[in-house]
Structure formats: structure tokens, C-alpha cells
Amino acid sequence: MGKPLRVLIVEDSEDDALLLIFELRRGNYAPVSRRVETADTMRKALEEEDWDLVVSDYVLPGFTGLEALQVLRDSGLDIPFIIVSGKIGEDTAVGAMKEGANDYLIKGNTSRLIPAIEREMQEAQVRRKKREAEAALVRSERRYKRLVAAVTDYIYTVTLNEGTVTRTSHGPGCLSVTGYSDEEYQQNPFLWYQMIHEEDRPAVTSLTEELRAGKEIPSVEHRIRHKDGSLRWVINTVVPRYSEQGELIAYDGLISDISERKRAEESLRVQSAALEAAANAIVITDRNGIVLSVNEAFTRMTGYTLAESVGRDLSFLKSDRHDAELYQDLWSTIMAGKIWHGELVNRRKNGELYPEEQTITPVMDQDGLIKHFICIKQDITERKLAEQALLQNTSMHKEMEIARQIQLSLLPAAPPLLTGIDCAGRCVPASHIGGDYYDILLHGERLDLVIADVSGHSVGAALIMVETRSVLRAQMPALDGPAQVVAALNEILHDDLSRAELFITMSYLSYHRTSGRLRYSNAGHPPPLLYRPAEERFFELDAEGLILGVQRRVAFDEPAVQVEKGDLLLLYTDGITETQNPSSELFGVQRLKGVLAREHRKPSVAIIDAVLDALRAYTGNTSFDDDISMLMLKFLP
């Protein structure tokens, strides 16, 4: 039975590989081999299997022995690499050895193959053992350093002569605890005294007097100043030595660094204080749910004191609002070591039910066994009320949005296509719904224009606006001229407006498309503006008339004006002119006229956009405090 040998063969000739295997078997090896021809297959082979040896041809199609050597070096593996080739000269072979090849052989002359393999295998084993020894040494050094670092105790001895300290000696652990070596203590006999914190020196130095008096002294905890300047807590345990005559001649002390313990105690004190100061109720139970501790917030929330709660199962808080499945799910979750979070309705001591949000966290020991549960409870009564109010508000918001969409749908979806007239309209409600209304009514050669503003921004204002639209569209065909229309609206709407304590301002205009004559009436509304660019002149189309809904049988004036080609007509609501800047100054009619004069060459839609942009720039806001509506007609040349 030959010696096992796992060999990776880098060779493009299967026959040459078989000859190599034959030579290995003749050399008393039992080879397990794999042949590769490319860098990728070689990398894969090195990753997938362990090899004792790599034997490579020097020249392969698209791959060389030196490239194969580089693949091996990139893998980080320490495996002997031998080149066997019939096309390698001495210079090339020397270069390959310099690159890291372990040996080279000429094909057909492999008598050196077996000795070379045995030599390289032995050297590889030596290197392997050396690496293992070095790794073991590193591990040993690390273990020693950890042990030294873990030593927190050391023994010191104080020698006395007639009650006076004559010598101190400190064990090797003193360096890790104090930062000073025994040599430094020998050089400075007062170093130990100087190292003790100023406030603790009297208690420590009094030990000698108590020892002289033959008293048994307990261990003393005190602070020392470490060599690095930091404060450390130590526990100092002293054992006296007396002469045959009973004289104190020395004492031995054991010093332990307890800084970590002190920090833990301080942390525990802070945590305990935080527990009591916490706004949320906190309960600590054992693994069976028996109460071990509660904080003050628990008493405030439930009415049960610490004495009334300790030793009881938390089920004393249960209400009858939950079925058994909820509690079974809770217990299966926390007993599996998971956190349970949910909402429960519990009962206070006075019988009152209340909702609480609860989080139960298992606390495990070092073996992973559940020892305690920490339960954090929060009374969420106010939050539940707020959520309910939010839901109601959300529902109201949705209903208002629907009302807004309905209201906007009553405005003209798009202006009518009129020969020689560019027309556009826009309504921007201050809230979801508003009281502004505009319309364009075509009746033969007569084009009626209306803009109105119902007082307020309530649902009532929106309903009155809808009623106004309905009445207007029903009455307009039977009436002749703006004055009759506005008077009829006042009579029909008077009672509804009085009961609702609302009123309407309105401008109503009637334009005859053939003659160009424009008649208009006004019911307390901002007068429409007619701008004539040819003359750079504005006409305010105002007329005598009372606000709708104030009294019955009101007479309205009906002046007229001749419209010329190129004129610009704007109907608007007072939300524009009464818009205020941060200094409470009104936008006013003059600024509105300035925008119209500056932008009159643009289409009607663009002029409306320009007015809105000017208002936003003036206020510095994107929204408005009042409804804004505009109806724009541009009489084309």
C-alpha cells in the first residue's frame, strides 16, 4: 500500500498527466489527482479540496507555469510547487525558482521526481510545524497577558520598629492595581501614603494605632490615585503579626481593586432612582408572574401600593374585557424568551377600567434561563381619546373634501368658446369650502357674467352659494338685464339669507356680442375693472345697489359702457384687494391694476396666474385667508 498523496496537476496533456501518476506509483505513492488546464479551474480546485502538491507544466495553451504559481501564491496556501516541462531552459528554470517554485524537472527525465517530492513534503511539514509552534506561542503569550491583566489582588507587607514603619514591600500585582512597581515603592517610602485619596487618609492611617491596641479591624474600602491619575476604589484587608512579647512588628495586607463593583453599585443606585422617578409604571416579577417590586408610578396609575402588590399574581389587575386566548398568547410569547407588546384594558383599585400599553421583557441568567420579567405599563386613556377625536376629525376632513369637490364642480368646468373673446376663470377657496361663485351664462347674443361672494367660509355659505346658482340659472332666461336679475335674486333669497344670518355681494354684467354694449348692476360687490390698453385707462364698473339679503324691494341701477376690441374685463372678489402682507397692509385695487396693466398682453389664464403669484409674493405665503375668485375676459382685436 503506497503512501497517500493528493496532487493537483496543471497540464493540458492527459497522457503526460498519466505518466506523472505512473511515476508517483512507482515511487511507492498512492496518488489522488485532479488535472486542470486554466487559471479558473485551478482556483476552483484549490478552493474545493486540500492538496499536498502542485505539479505544473511550464507552457499550456493560454496559461503558463508562472501564472499557475501566481494563482497558488494568491490563494495563500503553503503547498510545494514543482514544474515539469520539456520546454524550459536553465535560465527560465532559475527564474521560476526565484518566483517561488520549489523545483523543476525535465519531462522524460523524472528520476529526480520522487526525491524532490519527498524533500519538499518534508520541508513543507517543517514549515507547518514551525507555524503551529509560532501560533501556539502567540496563544500562550496572549493567555499569559490575559491572566496577568485579570489579576486584581496583591499582597503587601509593612514592617514596624517600635511603632514606626521602617519598610514596605509590595507583590507583583501592585503594578496592575496602582500602576507603580515594587521598586518605585522602595525608592519612595511615602509613596503608598501619598497615593491614598486625601479624604480617606485618616481612616487608613488609623489602622496602625488600632492594630497596636490589639483590635481586630475590618476590611477598609478607600480610594487611591493610580499612577495614570485616575481614581480607583480598593478594599484593604489587614492581618497583623506580633512578637512573642505581643508587640506589633508587621502587618500583611491584601489589596483588591473594586472599582468595577463601585461603578456597578453607583449604576444600580442611579437605576433605582430612575425606576422610582419614571413616569411609566414598572413592575418586576419572578418567572411565575409573582410581583417582586413596583414603582411609585404603578401606585399612582392603579391605586395599589407596593405592600398591596408584592407577592401577588398580576392578574389582580385583570378586567373582563379580554378572552383567555389573549393571555395564553402573552404567556407563550414571554416564556419563549420574546418580548410581548400590546394593549390591555385593566381595572384600578377603585374599580375603574382604563386602557394601558404594556411591554413585558424576559430577563435571563447566564445559562439562558428566564429568572424575571420586567413589565412597563403606560396609561393611554388620553391617547385613546385623542385617537378617537382624530378619527372623527379625519372623517370630517373627508366629508369636507367631498363637499369641496362638489362645490368646485358647480363652477364652469371650462369657459365657453366665444369668437373674439379669450375667457378664463379661477376660484381658490381659503378652506375646504367657501362662499365665492362665478358663472358665464350664454343666451343667444347675450353673454351674462356674474361673480358673487357669500359672507363667511362655512358649510352654510357654500349651501347658499349652491342655492344662488340654482335660482340664477332658473330665473335668468325670463329676465331682461342685470338690474332685473339681481332684484329677483334679492326677493327670492331674502328669507333664506335672513334665517342663516348671511348676505351676498354680487356683480352682474350682460354683454351683447353684436353691439359690444355692456350693461351692469352691483349689489355691494367690488366693482369689476375694464382696462383699455390703447388709452392706458381703467374703468371701475360700479352701480348703486344694496347687498342681497338686507331688505326687500331694492332697486338696482343698470349703467352701460361700450366695449372696444383690445379691452380687458376682470370680475373679482374682495379676497384679492383685502389680502394683507406681514405689516397688515392691504394689497388694494391699485396693485391689482398694476398687475393687469403689466400683464395685459398675456392670455387670460396667464393674467390670472400672474395675479395669484403677485398675491403670494405680497403675503409670503402659498395660502390665503379669504376665498379668491376671478373671471377674466379679453376682447381680442
UniProtKB/TrEMBL annotation:
Ligase recorded as keyword: no
Residue ranges annotated for the PAS domain, each copy included: 140-215, 267-314
Alphabetized UniProt keyword annotations: Coiled coil, Hydrolase, Phosphoprotein
Name by which UniProt lists this protein: SpoIIE family protein phosphatase
Highest taxon listed in the record's lineage: Bacteria
Residues annotated as domain PAC: 218-270, 338-392
Residues recorded as bearing 4-aspartylphosphate in the entry: D57
Coiled-coil segments: 114-150
Organism: Geomonas propionica
SMART domains membership: PAC (SM00086), PAS (SM00091), PP2C_SIG (SM00331), REC (SM00448)
Keyword Cytoplasm part of the UniProt annotation: no
Response regulatory domain segment(s): 6-122
One Pfam family hit: Response_reg
